[in-house]
Structures are given as structure tokens and as C-alpha cells.
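User: two proteins, same treatment. go.

Assistant:
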Amino acid sequence: MKAFNIIETGKGLDSWSRVDLPDPTPGPGQVSIRVKAVSLNTRDLMVMGGYFPIPPKQNAIPVSDGAGEIVAVGAGVTRWNVGDRVFGSYYQQWPHGQFPADAELHALGGPLDGMLAELVTLSESGVVRVPDHLSYEEASTLPVAALTAWNAVMESGGRMTPGATVLTLGTGGVSLFAIQLAQASGFRVIATTSSQAKAERLRALGVSDVVNYKHTPNWEQEVLRLTNGQGVDQVIEVGGTGTLPKSLRSVRSGGLVNLIGLLTGFNDPIDTSPILFNKIRLQGSGVGSVQTAEVMARTINAIKLKPVVSDVFDFENAKHALAKLQDAATFGKVIIRIN
């Protein structure tokens, strides 16, 4: 089968190498999946660059997110049949409940082999059914970006009621899924972006209040103005320490800041006084369990949510897809079509 390997981290796009590998066969309790498409995340750039906290194993297959069709099942498999459409769970050994301390040791795309291959073999308990209305390309965006947004908006923000206000930053996959889920829940969305073109696309998604942070560097003041000085109920904070101080000034007293990304850094000092004096909840948030992914997938199926896709590349141009993600100018998810 054709695949990519991570041959050496820290070498930029040359960290990935096109290889031919033996076709895998499913063992007991496993399923083999013909991967149709994968989607890229900032995490893939971190693994490639050698600055993800847990390094990949030697010659690991990259990319955590993928969807495809089950083509073989191992002995004892009862949950799935050949022909079922599935996507892989990012955490292969987190079925439900509290986040396991060793969860990152069992994540696809390094430390475990990922999805950028024609065939992969996963545990039958580590895959989730694809919503009926989604293509494989669209379904490949669900394991990390969609589930991270789901956890932030629908789980940690579960006390919010229709009419609550959510602030999203930028137009990456997590932020766009958060916008869609928040709107489906009856929440008001305020979004920031860097260009007029992206602002128009956000408005086309139904976002009425868009703040251009290039034109309005003190965007937290505009957020306060838009909320009559009260602040938003929740912030989807994907920037890290470069944007976190503004997010803390944008949220209401007793509100929630979901810290998800580190795009602007993570080592800058932070003034913690707003957290203390305004009783703000600051919470690290990320991907969820298999059970949570199943609930999300059923909901996406019920409301017919369609992921926002930026670009689709073919397998042989996988490195071009990675370069596209690197330029940080995308609106939506970057996809690699395999079969």
C-alpha cells in the first residue's frame, strides 16, 4: 500500500517521505479501513516540526484524522461489518469517562501510526460511524477539530442557554466548527478575523458580529461594546498567550475561557488578576472520548451540519497540503484525498 512516513522531525516538509508498505491485516478485535481522505491539523505541523510534547515513533505514519470504509474485520469483531463508513478516534484507548493520564500515548498520528495511508488497522472500539450526509472528505475533519469544538461549546459550556454569547478567534477548523455548533444551539456568535474577505465568509455562515483584529488591534474593547460592556459568556481561545489576555478581558464575570490552541505562543507571562477578581473559569479543552465522538456524530447527522473545507489535495501532493496549512491563510480544513 502507499503511505507516508515521518522519517525525521524538524526537517520541514522533508520530514514526510512517500513509502510503500505491506498491506496490514486485522487481528482479533480489529478492523481494516481503506482510508478515503484525511484532514490536517496544527498538531500535524507540531509533530513534523519536532515540538509536539510526545515525539512520534520511528517511521510513524503521520496525520491523526481520517475516514474510510471497513474492508476486513478480525476475529471476534461484533460492532462493525465490511462496508461500514467510519472515522478513527484520535484517542484509541479512551472509550468514555474522565481523561486518562496516558491518553496521549495512544493518539493517532504519533505516537501511534496515523491515517495517511491507503489502509489502516484500528481497534473496533476506536472507530466511529460517519454521519450519513457527509462525504469521506468532510468526515475526515471530525476527529480533532469538530470534537474539540464540541467539547468546548457543548460539554464544558453546557450550562449556557439559548441567547448566550460565544466569541471565536480566527477561521481555523476548531473556530469554524464552534461557530456552527454555537449557532445550532441558539447562541450568539462574535468572531474575529484578519481580513475583509474572511469577514464576508463568516457573515455568509450566519455570524452577524465580526471584528477585524488587523483594523481593530484592541478587539477586546469592541467585543465589550458589542455586549453592552458585559462581555461574552464563553471564549474559544485558540491563540495562546498572545491572545489570552484580550480573551480574559472579553469574557463576562463568571464566564468561561476555553484554552484550546497555542498558535501565538505559550511562554509569555499572563496577568492572572482578571481570572481571580472576575471569577473567570479558564479551562484547557481538547479532543474527547470515543463515546463523546459518537454523540457528536449523531448530532451532526441529525442537524445536517456540513464542515467547512478550504482545499482538497490528492495523495501525491500531500506535502503541498501541509504547506497550505503552514501558510495560516486557510478558511476551513485542508484535506488529502487518498482513494
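Protein 2:
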Amino acid sequence: MRLELRDITKRFGTLVANNRISLTVEPGEIHALLGENGAGKSTLMNVLYGLYRADEGEILLNDQVQHFTGPGDAIAAGIGMVHQHFMLIPVFTVAENVMLGNEATGFAGSLDLDAARKRVEEISQQFGFHVNPDSVIETLPVGVQQRVEIIKALSRDAEVLVFDEPTAVLTPQETDELMGTMRQLKEAGKAIVFITHKLREVRAVADKITVIRLGKVVGEASPTASNQELAAMMVGRPVELTVRKGPPKLGEEGLVVQDLRVIDALGHVHVDDLSFSIKRGEVLAVAGVQGNGQTELTEALLGLQTHVTGSIKLDGHELVGRSVRKILDAGVGFIPEDRQEDGLVGNMSIAENLMLNRSFGEPFVKNGNLQLGKLDEFAQQKLKEYDVRAPGISTHADNLSGGNQQKVVVARELSRDLRLLVAAQPTRGVDVGSIEFIHKQIIATRDSGVPVIVVSTELDEVVALADRIMVLYRGRIVGIVPPDTPRDVLGLMMTGERPEGAVA
């Protein structure tokens, strides 16, 4: 099925999110839509999917103009969408999620769950997904949940598939698997729109690239274009794609962790006898495949885990046993890996989110009264400094794009007087221009003498930021190595193998 968008314009009040955008996607083609956070990519696809109605312009499928009043019309016309944040019911099975909204019925109107199971099995077999239709969604890894989203779209005979930032929550291995799936779908004749800001992924799978900036198409590019060329088109200026940092100016040990052990309520050990330290002015980057104790480690540092033994000392003061509030007040900044779940309150404004961990005293609260003038001045400053794309500081956080949400979290944490920065997936779902900025802020924090621990599944990010790399496997330290360690060695360490010379 051939998709054509002609002069699509979408406004939100005075904000023009899409300004006369046109593009064409042929059957058996992967068309990448590349742009910064807030450029208008997701808005354009929400227009295509019937979630928004365009103020101007037309949507054509096989040269026939479409009039969608909602997603149901788009689905019926053969359009499927795989959202950045999955639209799945966690406590339902795969089959139940696939049939949701398209329920087949049997005798006396009963749900025909067997038909849904069969459909899941057929699609899984066709594309090699290996998804059990009876598995409960919340028990599945993120990469498998995404396959369920794809199965759900294909079960409704989608011929045009929209992938909206599909790798934002995936590990490198899961990303590679998704790239393979997209190639299979292309070979099956599907027309694919791939929304992303990750240059490596675009160059790996795209047949065509359309770049949009500030709601307008600024050009088309070939997948053979360099990362620097694509980044410059996205941002409108040359972008530094490498992290520039001098040698660390190491001070005394700031963070000392000894014999740390984290156990969940069921008795499962997630962090197993970890001992390490970070000096002032140093970045220790934690590498490993997602699910090997990184999340539990960062949560233990913040007091978010309840079953913790061992010692965590910051500037010689014990943190284990302290409340989260006292740990934050001790100068610990925290960029959580899930900004929506742990970093922001969606129905609160940008300004309110910027003061979340400083809402008990000056400068924002005095004698129990909120100092609105101080808060507004601070929020306006951070909006500009961190280039948060939003109509204003009163905009609710859940109305921001994912990358702009991340910038709000980073702005809040890095604007405090820190003694330790814990950054988990600091640039997940963030565009190249923002990645450049956030990386510079992390290095500036390190250069100011603050110990920094960075947890990332992006190996490029780990190597770029680290003064030392600590590799975790099944909750234990495989080794602590320098950042110039060869990639293949780091990859082996992520599987649990310890090379010679690795400090444990």
C-alpha cells in the first residue's frame, strides 16, 4: 500500500507543530523520519493514525484521499502504529492484548480467545518472533513486549506500519533484533515509517530519509550520508558527536560502596556483594545488558530499595538506612532510567516538576509559602538554558515529547548543589543535539569535583563518558577496566567472562 502525506499542517493554539509537511512511502520501503525531540515527528504520525485531525492537508492511501475520525478508521484502512510507550495491558496475556478492541466472538457472544491465540502463533511463526500467546505481558522483557505490539498491528492486516521511536527503551541486542524484524516486514511488502533521532539506526535500515526541524521538512538525505551531515540537518548547526573531556582531576574518594547486597521481597538477589569507590572528579560508568542489577544498584544508592545490606558512604557518611529525602538532602542528584515513572509527575507543570526535590525550603518555599516569582524565574531560565521545547513553564510534563521530558529531569538535578550524581540512562530517547548538551553537563559536573556514576546500555555512551568502566553480570562485578578497553572485550565481559587484568 502506497502512503502519501500532502501539505499536512497541525496547530496547537499559536504553536505550529507541523507546517505543510509532505512525504511518500512506497510498499516494501523503510522511510525514516528524522528530527530532534519536539520537531513534530510524533504529531505528524498521530495525524496519520487518526489521533489528531490535520488543520490542512491530505492523507492518501493508494492515491485515495482518506478522512479519519479516529484510530479505528486508520486501522480499518490498513495503518498500524507501534508506539514509543507500549499500549498494552500488563496483566493481560499476549492473546488478550492482541484481540483487545477487535474482539472475535463465538457461541452466545463469548470471546473467541482460541482464534486470537492462533493468530498470534501464525504471525510469530511467519516472522520468527517466538512469542507465547498465553504469556502475561508484565512477565515479558521489553523487547518481547514490542514484538507483541507489532503482532497486534499485523493481526489487523496493517499494510502501513509506523514505528514511533521504537528503540527508546530497548537494549542494543533488542535493537538489532528489531532492525531485523523491520527488514522482514519490508520484504513482506509493508510500507514502514520509522520515526527516530538515532543516526546509526537510520543508516542501518532506511531506504529514504526525510529530516524535519521545527515542524518543517528541511531536506531529504541518503542513508549513505555521514552522521555529521544528518546531525547538522536535524539541529541546524554542526553537532559535536564525540565527548570532549580532559583527564580527570581526581580528589579524595567521594563514594565508597562495600559488600552491597540487594534482595527483593521474594528473596531474589539482584546485587551481590558489590564493592567499589568513585573519587571526586571521576565518572564511573556501569556497563551491562539490561537486567543485571543496574536498576537495583541505582535505587539502592537513592534509598529506594528496602532489603539492602552492606555500606554506602558519601563523604564518609553512611547512606544505608536513610530515607530518600535525607539522601537527596545530602546532595545526591538522581536521573532515573524511567523518566515517566520515577522522574516526573505528568499532571504537574514544568515549573512544579523543576522544584520537586526542593519543595521544603528556600528559594522556592519561605515560611510555608510558595514563592511563585522565584519559581517562575528559575523555570524560565532552565527552559531556555536546556532548550526545553514547550509553549511555556505552565505546560504539563505529560504533554512534552520524551526528549523534552528528559531535559526537564536533567535540568532539575544538575541545577542543585551536588555531592554525587547518579545518572541512569541519561540520554535515553534524546536527540543528538540534546545528547551533546547533556554529555557536556555531565562532564562539567565531573570537572567541578563531583563523583559521577553513569549507568547506560549504550556502549558508545559508556566509553565516551567513562574514566573507568565497571561491568556487571547477574548482579556481580565482572571487572573494572579503562575506557580504551576494546569493544569485543567489553562484550565478552557483559556475558560474564573476566579477561586478564580486569580489576574486580
